[in-house]
Amino acid sequence: MKALLPIGLVVLLLISGVGAAVTNTGQKNIQQFEQTCTQSVVFPSEPCFTVQGEYFDVTMDGAPLQTRTPGAPIVPTSVYNFQIPAHASAISVSCHFNEAKTLHLSQKIRPAPRYIFRSSGTLTTEKGREENEHIYGSSAFYPSSSFEYRITCGRNDDNIIVNFVDVEIYPVQYSPANNEVKYLSGQGEITITYSLMSLIHNPLNEECDLVIIAPESFSQILQKLVDHKNAIGTTTILKTAEDIYDEYEGRDRPEDIKLFIRDAYETWNITSVLLVGGLKSHLYADDREDANQGSTDWWIPVRYTNIYLYDAYSATASPYEPGCPSDLYYADLYKKTLIFDDWDTNNNSIFAEVKTDMYGYSQIDDTLDLRPDVYVSRLPCTTKREVKTIINKIITYEQTTVLEKPWFDTMMTIAGKTSRLYQGKPDGEYVCDKAIEYMGSLVTPVRLYATNNDTGGPRPIPEDIISEFKKGAGYVNFEGHGNPLRWDTIWADGSYPADWCGGLKVSDFIRLTNRDKLPVVIIGGCHNGLFNVTMLQSMRDLPRFLNRTRYWCHGVPAPVCFAWGLCILPYGGAIASVAGTGLGIGPGGGTPLEYSAALESNFFYAIGQKNASTFGEAYKGAINRYLNTHPTLDAMDYHCISIYQPFGDPSLKLGGG
Fold this sequence. Notes:
The protein is of the alpha/beta class. 21% of the residues lie in helices and 30% in strands. The strands form 12 sheets. It has a 6-stranded mixed beta sheet, with helices on both faces. Strands 1, 6, 7, 12 and 13 form a 5-stranded mixed beta sheet that branches.
């Protein structure tokens, strides 16, 4: 979960051309400009050190964020965000300050805690804040530089693909062996320079808003959705997976699909892609041919990451989470300067290869961009009946306006204590309250909280959740624990794992008869979006059975995961959902708004604060805000962002037509 504090936001500041050259290449005129952006940075005072037990906590005016690498010193940071044209090149970043000052300390600076897992089957809890002996035993300063930056490519709030240049400044650096800090003081300046090629060419002959990718066997049914989308002004094209495989030759079928999506963007300027098709059977399927993909038993193939997580408190050296399905792979078309991003930067044909060791320290073999360039979402339908069900729900939802949905301004938040209390309230409730705050006057909240057990009101128990669903809501936010078959949380005065509230199970869905009062649902919990489950495979998955085909169902047959199961209910449920395909991650200390909860709450920030109007825009906005506040990424960030899986129509107008 993630802290989202105010930061400097800089968009195309003080752009000034410092040179230009014109060349002629046949029918195209190319102009090259050298451009510069600058931003002043001020740290008005010295760092402040507060004694907390045997450690110092350090803060500094002008640096509201903190580092959070497990076992490394927690020092303040400040992040500045720039946007420059997508076709910029030769980008360089510099940061200049007056000479740094030094201080000697009487105690060490506190190390960051390890992360925790938000699974309903296991919970790793913080057992002290162990120091990384390599850092704390060294005289080198941490961080090693006073600033770092990251350049990524993605779609901004104005729906334009740009280069994001995110600069993170560390005004305090700490030498543990010498117990000394050096710090920046006064005013400095960030300078970004780049070359810009202005290419004059003919505009696109065709444009398209939405491409639907589906197997041939679903295409006739989907024509109804294509006709509906075109009728409401969302220009839509249907492309079959079989045609894509005939036309493209990537390293595997997921890469074939991604190459087509890139060409569709460059040819038709598409905004959204809807993948229609999941596994071919609910009973049994071989969901993963190898470490990288599932294709043969899938209607539309899936890319698996190779992001390996280890449990720092487990006796086993096996990966606790050996990679997860990720449709963000299809959305992340480009890295900086519009270079195609294949998620294999070391060119070893192992995609999204990132590891943690047993103490949470990262080894990043493939540097991923992670920003969506197009909005991609999936309807992982297995049968034609499911395709009919979900497209009928989408069409009905979009054929009525917000004014015809008096229930739409209701926002249900369902939570308790995920792992601890924070500022006097359960951490899950704190995250939900922050999501409500982001939505502001757009919603009327209905809080189904564990604390209502003492004060009165609806609680996170099956009866109350089902009752409130039937009344209708525009949005629902679950914050707690999960697996593919259930979501749950803990009573405010309870302890893990004995004191579950009850939550909601897939087997309870038969009672969700909210008909056309369909919410968009955001689910915080482990594996609630793990859409590769089948009944026989999940029955083989016994507790603590650690291997590459773990489905986290603890031996219980799972025909469908929680998040997608809500969407395919024919008589209610959800119109769209977002949930994790892997372990949800929380912080071991500090604000609960870190890691997974940052993305979950950011979805509502994108709607309430950034005016996102479609499901895909809100999903993109959640990821962008995460990356804008933490440009320096570790394995936990890669994992949390890549598993954040949307189910639904990315072009869906929130609230309807």
